[in-house]
Design brief:
18 helices; 6 strands; three-stranded antiparallel beta sheet; mainly alpha; about 50% helix; binds carboxymethyl coenzyme *A; single chain; about 450 residues
């Protein structure tokens, strides 16, 4: 699967397809920059030599026009609403695969054949238990700690437990670290939940599927046999698939940046979890449900839409808009369908939040403000309603996102480590502070 350089053999090449000439209007000096093309998607101007040749940096806060790396994992066409993992459409994967097949695809580059699937499942389930001493970390947290705070802590702590998979230069150790993270994250997430409700931790059960096991560790208790509804397990699995990877978003870029210094993978994933927590990113699913609760009834929607459009109000419609998608997020469509299925199997009729969400979506999609700015529902818009119906408290929503995204983070981290052009990430800046000034001794400072 891997070439002698340790680089996956299925990866395409970046080609130079021309040059771009940049002219400095102040001096008339010109510089030619290579124009690069990947397999598909917009071309990119290679500015690596720009500073050496001109003494200028590029300025792009928020990386709105900057490709930070080559990647062969995930492709998004935001205008068309297309999401592909290793070339496969998210709709096909969500419909026909289970989450571990998608993990195999992201991490190893191909969908598994039946034998590879069996082997991969065995490998992952082999790693589902956490070191017994890791469970003691939980009691150091307050019971009311946000589970994302707990996840940042215990994931970072993994590097103190699994020294034998922290040598990032050893391909075998990199793969073991990846397997450990994918396998242990649901166990740690379920433990965070159990700790918050004061129930005993449940050990993983390797006879269950990835999603079933997670639901079992979360909602099962030692007192009675627990049986998972197959529709709910499938919904959980689909939610994991829909969140598995999403190219160079904030948390993935955080993982890559942390890893670019040679930090160990467990520490890097802990950094990714911290970045995911914010409400503009993975924290949006929790924020959506809080927003729907605050709206309370359909007749308050016009007021909330007015606030979202008001330039002087920093309120935003949570679950709407995306940096890359300027069309309906393909994941949101699948999520909406899954939402109906879950509510149906749970026997929940007239779910008040769903009614508000659907009306909000309808109004926003017709409103010129949202239409002109191309703000559509994103993956987080419906996921909270499903997770709430399944019994998860809102504080666990982003944790579930973190569980699912771990495979994306670690696949991207691994790809970066194996990329021969990889360098430590070190952005530059436009300095706006004071220039050199004379030092004033303490006694003379007024
Ligand atoms: N409600 C109201 N107005 C919005 C919204 C929104 N949800 N999102 C963007 N806008 C407006 C924004 O005010 C700006 O208007 P103007 O051009 O007049 O200043 C314009 O649309 C462009 O917004 P931006 O903030 O420059 O766009 P961005 O690409 O930097 O931000 C975003 C993308 C996802 C952070 C943003 O749309 C947002 O805050 N959405 C709500 C939070 C959310 O749902 N996040 C989940 C993202 S999907 C899952 C994930 O990636 O984790």
């Amino acid at each position: 699967m891997e070439s002698s350089k340790g680089r996956p053999v299925w990866r395409g090449e970046v080609k130079q397809v021309g040059t771009i000439t940049v002219t400095d209007d102040t001096t008339g000096k010109t510089v030619k920059l290579p124009l690069l093309e990947g397999e598909t998607g917009p071309r990119a101007i290679d500015v690596r030599k720009l500073y050496a040749e001109t003494g200028y940096f590029t300025f792009d806060p928020g990386f709105t026009s900057t490709a930070s790396c080559e990647s062969a994992i995930t492709y998004i066409d935001g205008d068309e609403g297309i999401l592909l993992h290793r070339g496969y459409a998210i709709q096909d994967l969500a419909e026909n695969c289970d989450y571990l097949e998608v993990c195999h695809l992201l991490l190893r580059g191909e969908l598994p054949n039946p034998q590879q699937k069996e082997d991969f499942e065995r490998t992952i389930t082999y790693h589902t238990m956490v070191h017994e001493q890791l469970s003691r970390f939980y009691s150091g947290f307050r019971r009311d700690a946000h589970p994302m705070a707990v996840m940042c802590g215990v994931t970072g702590a993994l590097s103190a437990f699994y020294h034998d998979s922290t040598d990032i230069l050893d391909p075998r150790q990199r793969m073991i670290a990846a397997h450990r993270l994918i396998a242990k994250m649901p166990t740690m997430a379920a433990m965070a939940y159990k700790y918050s409700v004061g129930q005993p931790f449940m050990y993983p059960r390797n006879d269950l599927s990835y999603a079933e096991n997670f639901l079992y560790m979360t909602f099962g208790t030692p007192c009675e046999a627990w049986k998972v509804d197959p529709v709910l397990a499938r919904a959980m699995d689909k939610i994991f698939i829909l969140h598995a990877d999403h190219e160079q978003n904030a948390s993935t870029s955080t993982v890559r940046l942390a890893g670019s210094s040679g930090a160990n993978p467990f520490a890097c994933i802990a950094a990714g979890i911290a970045s995911l927590w914010g409400p503009a990113h993975g924290g949006a699913n929790e924020a959506v449900l809080k927003m729907l609760e605050e709206i309370g009834s359909v007749d308050r929607i016009p007021e909330i839409v007015r606030r979202a459009k008001d330039k002087n109000d920093n309120f935003r419609l949570m679950g709407f808009g995306h940096r890359v998608y300027k069309n309906y997020d393909p994941r949101a469509k699948i999520m909406r369908q899954t939402c109906y299925e879950v509510l149906d199997v749970m026997g929940i009729k007239d779910e008040p939040h769903l009614a508000i969400a659907m009306e909000l979506e309808k109004i926003a999609l017709e409103d010129p403000y949202f239409v002109e700015k191309k703000l559509y529902p994103n993956v987080d818009f419906y996921s909270g309603i499903i997770l709430k119906a399944m019994g998860f408290p809102t504080s666990m929503f982003t944790v579930l996102f973190a569980v699912a995204r771990t495979v994306g983070w670690i696949s991207q981290w691994k790809e970066m480590i194996e990329d021969p052009v990889q360098k430590i990430g070190r952005p530059r800046q436009l300095y706006t502070g004071a220039t050199k000034r004379d030092f004033i001794p303490l006694a003379e400072r007024g």
